[in-house]
Amino acid sequence: MAVHDPIQAAQESGHAGHEVACRDEEREVNPLHPDKPKTAEELAVFGGEPVIAPPHRFTWPRLSDADKAAVLSLLEKGETSYYGREGVLTDLEDFWSGRLQGRRVLGTSSGTAALHSAFFALGTAPGDEVLCPTNTFLATVMPLVQLGATPVLCDAEPDTGNIDPAAVAAAITPRTAGIVVTHLWGHPCDMTPILELARRHGLWVVEDCSHAHGASYHGDEVGTFGDAAAFSFQGAKIVYAGQGGLLASKDQETHERACLLGHFRVRCEQDIESSLGRYSGTGFGLNYRMHPFAAALAMESSLAMETRIADRARLLGRLAAGLASIPGLIPPATRPGCDRGAYYGFKLRLSGQWLEAGAEQVARALACEGLDVHPPGSRPLHLLPFFTDGSVPLRRAAPPIRMPEYKRGDFPVAEELWRTSLSLPTFTFSDEEHWVDRYCEAFEKVARHLPRIASRAEL
């Protein structure tokens, strides 16, 4: 008769099954060894008492009274749509223009829309190659495909996870038009060599700042380095709008072309100063306007951002210090001269016995202790079918488009980062400090049982 494996059962049955596999709240005995009582030292995955019960579940955002009042005020005034630069959208754009050294800014319906607008406005055309990180979210790259360009993926730096300038330099060809960088998990990319490469080869640079609101590189805020920058205000970000984004442009023409792509008529008439204004009546085909409710939420959370950044830095610094004291755990590194700002995502690296036990097995054991911990959700792009199949049926009844055919092993640093990392909550509020300490306690408990997790001898 097969012995019940709670870790395997959790993997096969998903989150709900995982809860059952970790512990049975109604029983006072170890389900694997009914003759033995549960103990605090025994791992919960083996039937012991969890460190945190009921399990901790990180939630974001916490809507404030100010958030709710801002949206309710718009409802009461009947401001349910904007056609140009008006209302709270004006306040939001002015706020971010002030942060970003006076750049022209444009509220958008999402961060993805802001990226698409940037690529379009900078002249990305069919046949162009654009150098991109493989270690990023899909939105950094996929709008390029709609413009007929080819994303050329590049490997990551081992400490920050950001695009490696050396990999960028090696990938430049005569067809290269630009570079897009992601300030991953809030850590700024190494912009000095990237900007020098762009200058030398005549390339544009787009910054994806979706993780990095308020982050800075040697004293200057991200979003002020490239030819354009995109911010996401999606609900999981420190500045949240439900869905929303922002484009910041270095020059007037880029701003005007972005307006034409997604902000026809009134906004174009307001903002376009050149001969492109003759096309304001139709625009160039899309509607990327930000909803007033989204703008109101983004404005309120922008005003609260600095306080939340400071609180998050303090709590995640405490978490990092606690975990760094446990052999084999490597908290996120921050380079000298860099500030993570919003610090979107706390990625813990595993080494030594933690890896011998297996990242997925460790994540299951930690989850059974009541932690909201899991392997990273986004694998490197070159491991996804769009980038491995070689050809993609992008358009119905048309020949598949040809794409670079990547394979496992092409970008070993990004793969290693993904394989050896765990995602932890981005604790932000003062009342979460006790959770930080309980998480460290749970990691210490699991550390004492790593050989047993690796062997699973008693299962």
Task: Explain what this protein looks like in three dimensions.
The chain is built from 17 helices and 15 strands. By secondary structure, the protein is an alpha/beta fold. The protein folds into two domains: 44-62 and 305-379 and 410-455, Aspartate Aminotransferase, domain 1, CATH 3.90.1150; 65-301, Aspartate Aminotransferase, domain 2. The strands form four sheets. The chain has a seven-stranded mixed sheet with strand order 1-9-8-5-4-2-3, with helices on both faces. Strands 7-6-11 form a three-stranded antiparallel sheet, with no helix packed on it. Helix 7 (191-201) links the parallel strand 4 (176-182) and strand 5 (204-208). Helix 2 packs antiparallel against helix 10 (292-303). Mean pLDDT is 92; it is low at 1-21 and 23-33.
Overall radius of gyration: 24 Å
Number of strands: 15
Secondary-structure-derived class: alpha/beta
N-to-C span: 12 Å
Biggest sheet character: 7 strands, mixed
> CATH class of the largest domain, anyone?
Alpha Beta
Tally of separate domains: 2
Beta-strand portion reads 5-15%
Helix content: 25-40%
Q: Mind telling me the CATH superfamily name of the largest domain?
A: Type I PLP-dependent aspartate aminotransferase-like (Major domain)
- Architecture of the largest domain, CATH level 2? 3-Layer(aba) Sandwich
- How is the CATH topology of the largest domain named? Aspartate Aminotransferase, domain 2
Mean pLDDT, to the nearest integer, reads: 92
Taken from the alpha-carbon principal axes, the silhouette is globular
User: Low-confidence segments, ≥5 residues, pLDDT <50?
Assistant: 1-21, 23-33
Number of helices: 17
* Biggest sheet, spatial arrangement of strands: 1-9-8-5-4-2-3
